[in-house]
Amino acid sequence: MAVSLHHIVVDAHNLPALARFWAQVLDWRILSEREREVVIGADEAASVGICFMPVSDVKTVKNRLHLDLNPGHDDRDAEIERILALGARRVNIGQTGAESWTVLADPRATNSACCVRRRRSSTSSMITAWSVRRAVATRDTDRASMDHW
Predict the structure, then answer these.
(1) Which one of 3.40.50.2000, 3.10.180.10, 3.20.20.140, 3.40.50.1820 gives the CATH number of domain 1-57?
(2) Dihedrals φ, ψ of 81, to 5°?
(3) Is the CB of residue 51 less than 8 Å from the CB of residue 39?
């Protein structure tokens, strides 16, 4: 029998704030809130949620995973602006401007997400894929912007 994914666990310094940010981005809700764990999801019956757990150390290397967000049927640029208004910021990892995705970081700049162009065969889920992307810095000035990646 195969296992199934239950939660994606995110290390965080301010669990409630980060959980609320991602709940607003994804139009999810807080499912459980404890001192050392906050869980968000689409609803109680959702097959996958995001669990925020406390961490005391400071992030020193880029995350190996990030969320790819699908704007669904909405306008991608409008979704990016909505997410920026919630506290996210744009991140430069050496993009050329021709990419089909826009890199954003959460308000504490500890977790990254890409808002992708809507896929023609899009599903209703906001999280369409987990991906591992390695940005290649072409200039020394790009290296500093990649610290959070």
Answers:
(1) 3.10.180.10
(2) -65, -40
(3) yes
pLDDT tens figures, 134-149: 232 223 334 344 443 3
Does the reported pTM lie above 0.90?
no
- pLDDT at res. 119: 58
Q: Are 74 and 92 in contact (CB under 8 A)?
A: no
Question: With helix as H, strand as E and coil as C, how does the chain read?
Answer: CCCCCCEEEEEECCHHHHHHHHHHHHCCEEEEEECCEEEEECCCCCCCEEEEEECCCCCCCCCCCEEEECCCCCCHHHHHHHHHHCCCEECCCCCCCCCCEEEEECCCCCCEEEEECCCCCCCCCCEEEEECCCCCCCCHHHHHHCCCC
Task: Select from 40, 8, 9, 6 the least CA-distant residue to 26.
Answer: 40
The burial of 135, by beta-carbon neighbours within 10 Å (0-12 exposed, 13-18 middle, 19 or more buried), is given as middle
Distance of alpha carbon 35 from alpha carbon 33, whole angstroms = 7
